[in-house]
Write a structure and sequence with these properties.
Length: 225
Amino acid sequence: MEARFLGIAEPAETPSVAVVVDVMRAFTVAAWAFGRGAEKIVLAESPADALALKARHPDWVALKDGPPAPGFDAVNSPGLLRSLDLGGRTVVQKTTAGTVGALAVKEASLVLCAGLVVAGATARLLRQRGGDAVTFVVTGDEGRAEEDLACAQYIARRTDGDGTDATAFLRRAAESRAAAELTEGVRQGSHPDDVALCLELDRFPFAMVAAPEDSLMVLRPCAVP
């Protein structure tokens, strides 16, 4: 399988298959939301759109980057989200990079959202449905975020089989600027366990597929044998 690794703004044309990677923390959080029972995640264009969706659907759970804010129910932290019971709930997510990246390739025939916690299942789904070429959208730091690039490259390697050693890829993610900023408390709305949770390889057995539903971009878990 041919793999390309691009930043959010780089694709000149809509790819057929896109894997949007945000390890720290959007798609780790999304995976944890599904792990806590969420039915689906609506990817919002802006904070205002997220709040408008919440206003129309008061039972939905609105989630954003940064510190807590009026109208939002949660922040983009796996450490904080893991204690919530989201059974059957819809989550509305708006983040700085991950949701932006997914919406940028929403016209692709297959859009997967990924972090290390769903890397194996994502690779297996690509083997089943990915075709000959896949574009990995590296969302952080204009396509240069080391944790996202390491995850994307690891998934690409695993599309050829499950024997890839993850050690070097996990080390790169652990030593990334994003990991340092979370550890040092530079990023608001975080938990001390966030980095460790983001590095938990294959924590969940599902991939995450985003597709249009009723004019919204909706993320759902997809079990992969």
